Amino acid sequence: MNDSRTILVADDDRAIRTVLSQALGRSGYQVRATSSASTLWRWVEDGEGDLVITDVVMPDENGLDLVPRIKRIRPELRVVVMSAQSTFMTALKAAQRGAFEYLPKPFDLKELMAVVERALAAPQPPVAGESEDEAGERLPLVGRSPAMQEIYRTVARLTTTDLTVMITGESGTGKELVARALHDYGRRRGGPFVAINMAAIPRELIESELFGHERGAFTGALNRGIGRFEQAAGGTLFLDEIGDMPPEAQTRLLRVLQEGEFTTVGGRNPIKANVRIVAATHRDLRQSIRQGVFREDLFYRLNVVPIRLPPLRERLEDIPLLARHFLDRARAAGLPQKQLSAEAVERLKQHSWPGNARELENLMRRLAALYPQETIDAEAVGTELSEAEPPAEPGGARGPETLEQAVERHLKGFVAAHKDGMPVRDLYDRVLAEVERPLLRLVLGATRGNQIKAAAMLGLNRNTLRKKIRELDLPVVRGLG
């Protein structure tokens, strides 16, 4: 029973207070609710409450400013922060100031109740140090869609750790932005951020680029070369397009991750690897493992915390905010100030965005530079999108690629990759698994891991869904914490 646990609720919205009081009361908790931060602070000072749920914006004080004060006088008291200002910086500040959880409004009551149960049951973590956002509200990540909210919450928690992170997503989704946010707002922000793109380095030079080399280690090595691991000492090493790393470099990287040290090419003395590793790829590394081009043991060393960045077509509701953000950046770069008409925004939402946010940013720059009118209309947007589209294949119709066409295109590549040894005996099951995996992953993401809702959306029995999750080795993440 929860009748001995008291929850303190602070929100200036009477409806929110009523809903929370009723929901928590039905679960057996005692509830004290207020509309002011000052009253909440008085209750905390008096030793009341076993958990705090507070809004950020209140008439007398910002709820985020209360969190470190609460943690100083009552470090055992957990705080859940709610906010309709659902930006990355809000999630980051909540995590860095010691909040147990951050929930963007509007939130699902079942999710909130689950957070309450975790907060009251979890062992007491170390008290996080207070850290102010020195950059103000300069947002490294933009968007308020549910998919982006999950990313904000995950990234915010990871800024207090040195865990290895694997970022996956299509080209143009902002993988390096996430890597930089992990560094710039993390514990290693005082050190260097060093990035290396595996796809841009000749295969024979990757090991030297990563680990450095001694003089005379190979033809042309006239001096000792410092590698990226040494350059990033004390900071973050971002390994972009890790799926393009050649096998011999994969073996050396795995050894570094296992032993925490490395040697230069041609060297003998071990050097301590004092870096945080953040890797990224647009490839399906599990498929690369099955094809024998990526080491499975290295994958699990890198995939400690996976972050999947959704393509822009999966978060169309973020397009107005992103477009405004990119127009503001264009103006800051010296281009004329522009705005979009409502019809222009709707036209943007109809586009398939194969280039994702990078394509949108380039479009906003062109519109700002080429069109004299202050308000950009749908016709101008349509003209630029049409001119930017690649030419249609001979004999083919223009338009977005269908699922059948996408599957056929990938299968052609699969067959071509195995022309000398096609695994024909299990091809049917393997192809079905490749289609099932993203389908189930997307639905589970859309339902925030709720398997009952996911099964209903898919038209599957819940036991069948659980079996497929196990068979396909799908992670079901309801948020860290």
From TrEMBL:
Annotated Response regulatory domain residues: 6-120
Residue ranges constituting the Sigma-54 factor interaction domain according to the UniProt record: 141-369
A Gene Ontology term for the protein's cellular component: cytoplasm
Main location: cytoplasm
Pfam families noted in UniProt: AAA_lid_14, HTH_8, Response_reg, Sigma54_activat
PTM-bearing positions, type 4-aspartylphosphate: 55
Keyword Cell membrane assigned: no
InterPro entries: AAA+_ATPase (IPR003593), AAA_lid_NorR (IPR058031), CheY-like_superfamily (IPR011006), Homeodomain-like_sf (IPR009057), HTH_Fis (IPR002197), P-loop_NTPase (IPR027417), Sig_transdc_resp-reg_receiver (IPR001789), Sigma_54_int (IPR002078)
Molecular functions (GO terms): ATP binding; phosphorelay response regulator activity; sequence-specific DNA binding
Keyword ATP-binding attributed: yes
Keyword annotations from UniProtKB, A to Z: Activator, ATP-binding, Cytoplasm, DNA-binding, Nitrogen fixation, Nucleotide-binding, Phosphoprotein, Repressor, Transcription, Transcription regulation, Two-component regulatory system
Gene3D superfamilies: 1.10.8.60, 3.40.50.2300, Homeodomain-like, P-loop containing nucleotide triphosphate hydrolases
Cleaved signal peptide residues: none
PANTHER family: DNA-BINDING TRANSCRIPTIONAL REGULATOR NTRC, TRANSCRIPTIONAL REGULATORY PROTEIN
Annotated function: Member of the two-component regulatory system NtrB/NtrC, which controls expression of the nitrogen-regulated (ntr) genes in response to nitrogen limitation. Phosphorylated NtrC binds directly to DNA and stimulates the formation of open promoter-sigma54-RNA polymerase complexes.
Protein name, as recorded: DNA-binding transcriptional regulator NtrC
Organism, scientific name: Roseicella frigidaeris
Taxonomic classification: Bacteria, Pseudomonadati, Pseudomonadota, Alphaproteobacteria, Acetobacterales
Gene: ntrC
